Amino acid sequence: MRASPMSAALVIVCTLVAVPRASASLITVGIGAFPMGSTLTTFTGLALGTEINGLMVDPAVGPGGAILFEYSLGNGRVSVNVGPNTTHNINQPAVVSNDGANNSGVLTMTILSLVDLFGYGYALE
Known about the structure:
This protein starts with a helix and ends in a 14-residue tail after the last strand. The chain is built from 1 helix and 5 strands, in the order H-E-E-E-E-E. It has one domain (about 30-125). The strands form 2 sheets. Strands 1-2-5 form a 3-stranded antiparallel β-sheet, with no helix packed on it. Strands 3-4 form a two-stranded antiparallel sheet. Mean pLDDT is about 75; it is low at about 5-15. It has about 120 residues and is α+β, with helices and mostly antiparallel strands.
C-alpha cells in the first residue's frame, strides 16, 4: 500500500511541530559548587607542550577519574601549556591552542566512569 503525498506531508508537518526546541544556557559556578572530595583534574606535573590528542589524565584516580582527551583535527594543534591571557576560569597549565594552529576542531573529553556532575573552566582569546 502506497501513502498519498498528502498523508506523507501531514506526517512530516506533525513531526516538525511535535518536536520541542532544545536550548542551553551557560551557568557560571565556582569550585565550591562541587561536593567535598570531588575529583579535580589538573595538568600540574605534565611537561609544557604535552600533546592533548590521545592524552589520558588521572587514570589512577577513583570515581570520576580517568578522562581521555581527543582533538578532531589530530596532533600538533592543542597542548598542555600556559594560556595567553590571565583568566579567572582556569588554572595554569591548561589545554591551549598552539601558535598558528587551526582552532576549528572539536575537543572531546571522554570520562571513563559514571559521573553525575561535571564542570570545566575556559578562556576565550
